[in-house]
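YM 10:42: DUF6491 family protein sequence, as discussed on the call
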Amino acid sequence: MSMIRVLWATTLAALLAACASAPYAQRIGERQAAYAAAAGAPVRQFRFFTLYSWEPLSDSQLAVYTRPNEAWLLDVGGGCQDLAFVNSIGLTSNLNQVMVGFDKVLTGRRSFPCTITQIRPVDVKSLKAAQRQQRLIKSAPRSTDKQPTAQ
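YM 10:58: structure's back
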């Protein structure tokens, strides 16, 4: 009897986890699409002095902000496992330049550095405009027709 309870509890937990992760996966997919739409053509390098903020988009892609209105979409090679769950990152650079194929994203002591395979500038103004558009609530007035109620 206890084995059936354990199986039932495990199945229930798996179903709840799948339901809970669906909105998260949808949100991440929307964020990836928004960044891809706002990203320009690939560049070889960018100037880097400080890391203002960053946002993981997948285990192979992240957005890095070097200023509030300056962002870069980075594609990285293998080794960035669980990038969405890392508390902080670092970037290597040479003479304040981050270069494709040479520099890396650092995610912590236990993981290997992730080589940057592509850099694309992000048009932050268009990204923010798209985010504002997504937040708009579509509203319509309610019908004034009164429906008869069942008694």
